[in-house]
Amino acid sequence: NLSWTTTNAKTCTLNGVNTYLNLSTYATPALSTTTTYTLACKNQQGAETKDEETIVVAALNPATINFQSDILEVAYQGKAKLSWTTTNAKSCKLNGVNVALSNSNYPTPALTTTTTYTLGCLNQQGVETKQEKTIVVTQPNLPTASITAEGSDASTTIAFGNTANISWSSTNAKTCKVSGGTINITTLLSGTKNTGNLSVPTTYNISCTNIAGQTVTDSVIVNVIAKELPVANFYSGSINAPGDIEVVKGASATLKWDASGTTKSCTLNAAAVALNGTREIKNITTNSTQTLKCKNDANGEVIKVLNIKIIINPATAFVAWEDVLNLINLLRK
């Protein structure tokens, strides 16, 4: 508490703030540091007189901290256990979050990067003491992934309709996915799977990811030797030769065909027929196109076409010209 009296004073200020000329009790605010109070008073002529009083604040003991971690290096997603005790502390924060003044078991979350924990504690005067612990996180190894077909890591070739064994392996991986053709596996980090019968080239892929989300890929191709196209012949059965068929109106024609090689099925004008056969077409009155299609089991296809054309019967043509001449002679008479 401060107090003062004055004589011959007109105005007074305490640390620059107007105050009474006389005061028996002036309570200072709570002081945390040594503070000087200056009372300045002026007389009627404006002459100033000053007096000072310094209040020394005794320093309190600083907060002390004993901050520990059970481990200073952890694997990726590993945890550490922090603990601390304090003396002369009023409050504490860990990385800016209020915590108790002591804690014997404070587990960190799963750590993925090196992390520093700072424990700061204030004493009664608000003076802060800090300690730090840095937990180093060891990053995981990159994953590896390998996929092969019949032992080849680039490509392999099989005959049409055959199968191949696809094998894969990985290291440092948490998950792997293998896909391609009829294969779709997400549960095995290594293994072997048969492709089943293949008719077209197929690519098989593997993608593996480690616990840090880092991903690697690999692939292999199974090539398939294309099957030869079917072989088919289509011709006139009457002359056993290829080429269009010419007939007079109302006559008949015989179609003949034979298929070989990889042929599995044939159609004549879209109707299924045997691989070898004949077909007679009777009473032909218009031109027509006859189409033979033959396929193998790889969807290879050949198409053969025969055109049937109507021609004028020479005997009929002679009679027709004779009728024309008779008409001309009749008109001349």
Fold blueprint:
Blueprint: E1 2-4, E2 11-14, E3 17-19, E4 23-26, E5 35-42, E6 48-55, E7 64-69, E8 73-75, E9 81-87, E10 91-94, E11 97-99, E12 103-107, E13 115-122, E14 128-138, E15 144-149, E16 155-159, E17 165-171, E18 175-180, E19 183-185, E20 191-194, E21 202-209, E22 215-225, E23 231-236, E24 245-248, E25 253-260, E26 265-268, E27 271-273, E28 276-281, E29 288-295, E30 301-311, H1 314-332
Parallel strand pairs: 8-14, 16-22, 24-30
Antiparallel strand pairs: 1-4, 2-3, 2-5, 5-6, 7-9, 9-12, 10-11, 10-13, 13-14, 15-17, 17-20, 18-19, 18-21, 21-22, 23-25, 25-28, 26-27, 26-29, 29-30
Q: What does it look like?
A:
With 333 residues, this protein is mainly beta. Helices cover 6% and strands 53% of the residues. The chain is built from one helix and 30 strands. The chain has a five-stranded mixed β-sheet, with no helix packed on it. The protein has a five-stranded mixed β-sheet with strand order 16-22-21-18-19, with no helix packed on it.
Essential attributes:
333 residues, 6% helix, elongated, 53% strand, five-stranded mixed beta sheet
Describe the structure concisely.
The longest helix is centred in the C-terminal third of the chain and has 19 residues. This protein is elongated.
